[in-house]
Amino acid sequence: MADNTYILIDLGGSNTRVALSDDTALNPETIQKFSNAGYGCLEDIIKTYMQAQTLSKVTAICVAAAGPLRDGVIKVTNLDWLICPDRLRALTQADHVGLLNDLQAQGYALNVLPLESLKHLYGPSKAKAGTTKLVCGIGTGFNIAAAYPASKGVLVPPAEAGHVRLPVATALQRELSDWIAAERGFASVETVLSGNGLETLNRFFDPEHPRSASEVMQAAQDGQREARHVVACFASIMGSYFGDLALAHLPLGGIYMIGGVSRAIAPFVTPKNFGATFHDKGVFSDYMSEFPIFLVEDDFAALKGCLGYLQQSI
Prior knowledge:
Blueprint: E1 6-11, E2 15-21, E3 26-35, H1 42-52, E4 60-65, E5 69-70, E6 73-75, E7 82-83, H2 85-92, E8 96-101, H3 102-109, E9 118-122, E10 133-138, E11 142-149, E12 154-155, H4 171-184, H5 195-205, H6 213-221, H7 225-249, E13 255-258, H8 260-265, H9 271-278, E14 293-296, H10 301-313
Parallel strand pairs: 1-4, 4-8, 10-13, 13-14
Antiparallel strand pairs: 1-2, 2-3, 5-6, 6-7, 9-14, 10-11, 11-12
Helix pairs in contact: 3-10, 5-7, 6-7, 7-9
């Protein structure tokens, strides 16, 4: 075992990825994927992994989990799992334990991701170095993480930006918001900007033809008119909210989209739908041209973010 051995964990709602690193780089040969359904808790996965790697202790462990970090612990979304640093420390004998939500880990990864893992989508082709960056994750849900330059690395505070009220800029968006609120009691950003949100938009625009998110995207790719309208509306609302977020955080270092829905929607990001609403900011409309937007295509970005967090924390 190296002098410094770190366990890095990307814990999602369905699967968990685990890897080892030293204090400089992730070892891709050690990456292993576990189905959460086969385990009762994260500690069981870690035990299995450490036995396979013939490890009895490590220097540090960092867990990025899909769930809110509150009072020093994470309650995993969609799982009855509680991630507690004391349990991780006892199991691994680690001197350092880090807990992050999944979007924070993506924020800590931004400074170490290779350029080939980033696909330019919109705006300037190059980001300004040494400035704020913003991760926007669209998948099962929606959330963000802003990465602010700090004296040592970056500061990435947690957020729950998917649960703010859905922005309304047009009569159609007001009608949509009222329809969602009547059905659910509250229209949040996540009720639209997510996989379930694609299904919701499809029910709103084309109630006679219910579709799953994947079916909506496939129909849009096939040129089906109603599905393309759903996707265009999704991109338009996304542009409006991303523009709000850009003015709130000023990420001249770039906006970085992650998640399965982000990858699916990326080919449909155009100046006509996304761009029009992204720039619709009154006297600041011209300023919106300063923000580049990229798609992150690295499946192991969260693991690399865990390493980035440990590197600047130890």
